[in-house]
Amino acid sequence: MTGPVGSWARRIAELFDAHRLRVERVIARRTGDPQTAGDLAQDAFLRLARLPDGDAVQNPAGLLYVVADRIALDHCRAAKRQRLREVGPPGDDMPTAVPGADAVVERNQTMARLRGAIDALSPKTREVFLLYHVEGLTYRAIGERLGISPRTVEYHLRAALEQCRAHMKRRPPR
């Protein structure tokens, strides 16, 4: 093979050789399903291979882990939907877990305070915090995406948690 397709295919093959086992472990850890991890990892490599402009990817390994994480997350969501379909809708005799009005107001106030705490973080610390807690990325994946070491990711997360705790203690509920 020659040309752009050939060079991208070679890069994918190199990624496969270098990262396949780690990608499978990441997926297995995320899904709790080691039997399916190999299939999902192959799907991640196939999605990369199908990129129309693969040679333009600056960090193919980082993209691989992001794609693998998304595939694992999609798998978890599909498995959850399947379990819910198998259980069926709740019956009339089952108690509902609808919170009262006071609980809803208190939760909304707490969430608003937490959003304020997150907004008060420095931009880099906030980005690391959100990538970890919202997107569920690993320290390594965050580091690869942002061009920092996993140790620096850990530093930003620790700082974010300390600042958020301090913010939440400072601002009593209204």
Automatic annotation (TrEMBL):
Superkingdom classification of source: Bacteria
Keywords of this entry: Plasmid, Sigma factor, Transcription, Transcription regulation
Span of domain HTH luxR-type: 118-172
Gene3D superfamilies on file: 1.10.1740.10, Winged helix-like DNA-binding domain superfamily/Winged helix DNA-binding domain
InterPro entries (UniProt xref): RNA_pol_sigma-70-like (IPR039425), RNA_pol_sigma-70_dom (IPR014284), RNA_pol_sigma70_r2 (IPR007627), RNA_pol_sigma70_r4_t2 (IPR013249), RNA_pol_sigma_r2 (IPR013325), RNA_pol_sigma_r3/r4-like (IPR013324), Tscrpt_reg_LuxR_C (IPR000792), WH-like_DNA-bd_sf (IPR036388)
A single BP term in Gene Ontology: DNA-templated transcription initiation
GO molecular function, one term: sigma factor activity
Pfam families according to UniProt: Sigma70_r2 (PF04542), Sigma70_r4_2 (PF08281)
NCBIfam families assigned to the protein according to its UniProt record, in alphabetical order: sigma70-ECF
Family: Belongs to the sigma-70 factor family. ECF subfamily.
Protein name: Sigma-70 family RNA polymerase sigma factor
